[in-house]
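Colleagues,

Please find the record for the two-part complex below.
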Amino acid sequence: MESLAHKDVINLLLQLASMLLLARVFAEIAQKFNQPSVVGEILAGVVLGPTILGYLGPEVFEFLFQSNPSSNLALDGIVQMAVILLLFVAGLEVELHLVWSQGKSALVISLLGLVIPFVLGFIFPYFFSEFFGLGEGNRLLFSLFMGTAMSITALPVVVRILMDMNLFKTKMGMVIVAGAMVNDIIGWLIFSVILSFMGETANLSLFNTIGITLLFTAFMLTLGKALINRVLPWINKKLAWPGGLLSLSMAFCFLAAAFTEWLGIHAIFGAFIFGVALGDSDHLSEKAKEIIHQFINNIFAPLFFVSIGLKIDFAANFDVLLILAILAISFAGKIVGSGFGAYRSGYKFKDALAVGFGMNARGAMEIILGIIALDNGLIDEKLFVALVVMALVTSMTSGPLMKWALREKIVQSH
Amino acid sequence: MYQKVALAIAFSPRMEALISETKRLVQLFGSDLILIHIGKKTDELEAKLDEIIIKTGLDKLKTELIWKEGKPVKMILQACKEQKADLLVAGALKREKMLTYYMGSVGRKVIRKSSCSVLTLINPQVNAKRFSKVVINGTQLEVTPKVIEQGLKFCQNEQVSQVHILNEIKLYGLRMATAAEGSEDEVSNTRRKLIQEEIKYVEEILTDLDKSGLRINIKVTAGKWAVELVRYCESINADLLIMGDERGYTFIDRLFPHDLEEVLTELPCNLLIIK
């Protein structure tokens, strides 16, 4: 087995150290401005990457991130693992239980909040594909991807906003959380099907891919979940806690990821669905969930978000018109879709608008979606930058816009 | 509290114990008793029932016998409605299969569809004893204020020594992970706030209720409330769990079992469902 040489190891460690250090510094700054850490972590990547360090100190950037192909390869492996773990955590956050308890309105809000952004995100890139940056790829796949990228809501961002506004436990808060959970599941399901047609493993027909994806999902959420429910009590009782639970859940997450990658529907989907099945289990304690969250969100998530800035020159790929177009489509799609869904479910106009604004937060998931599409050559760097900006702007404006829509209610409650 | 108590009997080996337990409740609440049997009325069964009624010392004047033929669930519920029963008592059998089930499908259907409250006894005794450790579900649900109010009245009648009201923090793990972006103080403040909010919710319900003679312990857990209720009841060896149920059940509820089903699957103790 080939191994890293002495200087490769030093280079890799320097890369990891600089990424984690700067990510922490910028995350702390972002929090001072009441923004999610992910905003700071992406900015840290922009500072460390070709956009700023590559411009101001090209030798340092070259030495750290370009001089050593072996350590770059190792870093790429770590980042891949980070994406898989992030999807695993995203799955853990989904509580099907909560979705059912919120009933029909959660389903209507999430479905309309998914369909309308999807349609808008599909139509414009389909008919103006050149403007949106489609190269020689497949126009249909490209438009399907754009539709999906407009549809997924960032659950952790939404939770943070709702907690800050003391709305988490209200009927509206619960409906938004449940809606975001349904969005996640359907969005990743669609994206997995799209992905299977982009990579080298595209050897299945559309029908087979959709069938296998649905079968795998159904299996994991029924028999898989039942199996987890049988095994977890044993793990909790017989093995070290939380060590046993942590290592085994990671192991099975990677196993599920490897399985779906082998099936041809991308590793992230296996990790996500395994996360959903595990998170919905009666025997995974909330304390254990918190530990897994902390472990992944504070070590692997920063590495992933910083790595984005390292890949792309944000200044050179900053296309204002494209960014404005993406912002317009994303805002219109989510606010109209989820807002209309809430209005139809009996919410008053302003409350429905607030639901639309709440569901508009995109965040980390869109960025993961974008980077995979970029790596697979489905989108170009300009569009990726536009998607990152969209994710950041929607996350940053979601809270203030909700406050604005509910201002009379908030004033009354004080 | 309960004017008419109904008991579904099936001439099983536990019938005498069930009647004894119900007799205790009927005396406690000063209620009338309705004994319901779904099946053919024969001389032999009538004689057997008469014998048990005499043996258990039931007041014949305050006891009505109903014999009906047809589908058990439908007929039991129909009899309860016709007789205007406000509490239905039923026994639960533990069945061992691949998974451990407590309630058979008849029991589950009765609980789901009954319009009056249902008391399910898992281990009825001929020498019936009062309940001493009671857990009430205090999770934030529409029905919870009613459950706590009725639950406390039940406990006062029973002179229960300790009442535990269990409330749960929704999505605790996710909320704590989200809050963990702050400093150590902020994280512990959030944790404290989450717990305080849940305690306050129960305390506000309790404010206007009569709590005389009761020792009430409010407990907050994190996780799915049904699972946590079962675990808590097991950990303190509770002998009665009181929870509410006012939902209509649809096809989706069968595909994705809701909280009540979780409790019925692993019934930790006797269960009173308030409707």
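Chain B is about 45% helix and 25% strand.

Comments are welcome before we finalize the supplementary table.
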